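Standup notes
- DV: blocked on the single-chain target, sequence here:
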Amino acid sequence: MKNLKAFSRTRAPLPSESRTESTTSPHSLRQPQPPPSASIIQRLLTGGILLLSGLALSVLSAPSYAQGFTFFDTPVQVQEGQSEDFRVKLTQQPTADVTVTVSTSDNPISIHTDGSSLTLTFTPENWNTYQRVRVQGSQDGDTDDETASVLLSALGGGYDGVSGSVSVTVLDDDLLEIVSTGNTVMVEGGASSSITFRLSRQPAANMTITLGWADGTYANPDMDIDTDPDTAGYQHTVIFTTSNWNVNRTAAI
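- DV (later): unblocked, structure below
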């Protein structure tokens, strides 16, 4: 019997089995990052919405103004015995009718808005239209200027408690000071007389004084007035300036 040679057959691995296993460390490959938390995303979205809302409001919202009064022709200067007007309107449209009461506690002036009325009415339609307040200077016996205030207070239409004031200067009309007079009784064809005068205080600008008679005329068939005998004809006026206001001037009669 032939000797048999023992041999073993080795099976070649299949292509699919020809691989090497390896162990990978957890840090050797880049791991996927977890998504941002919902709370962070929510905060970012909320902040963006608020920012956009703020920008929209800043563009679309009209500027607001506090309720109050707008004045024209103020402060007021008025001569004793004369009247001057100032005007007033609201600064903002009211929600309903607004009644404005005008008053003063100062004696140098009297006031009214229409005849004897002391109120103004502003509506949601005419709030931006000026209305008139008339101030009249009161006569007194001194030669001093006076100061006063016109007070305004509102009620209704969102203007409750709103107030304002206008300052007033009353210019005294007793500027002419009679220094001396000559003969108060004159005889026809006799000696002439005279009157000497000046201003009682410095004027703010040049002032012209015109001499005449009580009935307002400048001519009188029985006598003449002449404020400047050196000029031909009869002159009836004298000009006082801010520098010569206290210099005596004499008119011949």
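- Follow-up: Confidence is low (pLDDT under 50) at residues 1-29, 49-53, 55-64.
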